[in-house]
Amino acid sequence: MSVTQSKDLHYMRLALELASRATILTSPNPKVGCVIVKDELVLGQGWTQAVGQAHAEVMALRDAASLGHDVRGATAYVTLEPCSHYGRTPPCANALIEAGLARVVAAVEDANPQVAGRGFSILKEAGIAVSHGLLAKEAREMNLGFFKRMEVGKPWVRLKMAASLDGYTALPNGQSQWITGSEARADGHRWRAKSDAILTGIGTVLADDPQMNVRLPEQEILRQPRKFVLDSQLRTPVSAKLFQGASASVVHVKRNPDAEEALRQAGANLLHLPGENSSETQVDLLALMSVMGELQINELHVEAGAKLSGALIAANCVDEILLYLAPKLLGSGVGMFALPELQHLNQARELNVHEVLQLSDNTIRVLARFV
């Protein structure tokens, strides 16, 4: 590796660290970090702000200006191709050109069709040297939901489940609180906080009356995800806790004007979708994922029972499973996923284990992605 490549790698890693600070802030925009460097001196740093506010490149330019640095002839390291279109903010590519930068090193091309290489073209036409591909895998990992939504119009779907070591989520009588320890539960809330929306099913609402919100120390909560309940026949009680503090969307198939009006009065948003194969008891899950994409949801976090969890997996809607395994044996109880019975082992759905972590309460957290 040359000296230049080594320096580029160092500054791009710094840009990725800055991008991580934008987690929770930016959605539906991607998390982006930017570092401006000249003569091995970092002149400015920045990361994308909340929707409608400045992007990473502009924040880095402002930072440099506040420190009295001249960025002309400098290099910008940015984790995503600078935008080239007028959206909620002006194009970042233009800002870099106007600032007089000489070089831009980007991790990955923007998947947004409004950009998709045009940012690079504008920079090159202005005489700026451009390269991309450095730490592209890491940059894409940071924005999996954004890339999936831009490429296929659907969110990245994470299915969270907590179970005993022998694979049960509850006792035969339904008791499930608490299988995992306090650290695992807090960790689960942090994953909720990273998500744009939480989805559960009517079975979970009727059995557990969940709040479906993020409950962490106040300084850790920058926003609450949107709430969705899959309730094909409108059985959600108007007294459900999920309506407390914020509205929730009830996804249904059956039409019932009285029930719909009662739920609206309770604070629900009603989302009517077609039933799978004209059914009134099963929402078309693929249609639901497309609607989630249209609602600009990048990451969808699912906390549901075995029936809905299994149905989402069977419909190929799930990208990864976030599994908490408590060091307990229940012997018998409620399983994790209600999936069709297989006749051969080669029919089993395969996953790649992405991460395994032991938490302080001895719970094992496994993140596995479908092949």
Helix content: 25-40%
Note poorly predicted spans: none
Separation, N- and C-terminal Cα atoms: 33 Å
Placed side by side, the strands forming the largest sheet appear as 11-10-9-8-12-6-13-16-15
How many helices? The count is 11
**How would you sum up the major sheet?**
9 strands, mixed
Question: How would you state the average pLDDT, rounded?
Answer: 91
Total strands: the figure is 16
In sequence order, what are the helices and strands, one letter per element?
HEEHEHEHEHHEEHEHEEHEHEHEEEE
Helix and strand composition category: alpha/beta
Name the quaternary structure: single chain
Residue fraction in strands: 15-25%
Structural shape: elongated
CA radius of gyration is 23 Å
Structural overview:
The chain is of the alpha/beta class. 29% of the residues lie in helices and 23% in strands. It has helices spanning 3-20, 56-66, 92-99, 118-125, 136-142, 144-152, 182-194, 202-208, 257-265, 285-294, 306-314; strands at 33-38, 41-47, 75-78, 103-106, 129-132, 156-164, 168-170, 197-201, 226-230, 248-252, 268-272, 299-302, 320-326, 334-335, 351-358, 364-370. A 9-stranded mixed sheet has the order 11-10-9-8-12-6-13-16-15. A 5-stranded mixed sheet has the order 2-1-3-4-5, with helices on both faces. Strands 7-14 form a two-stranded antiparallel sheet. Helix 3 packs parallel to helix 4. The two termini are 33 Å apart. The mean pLDDT is 91.
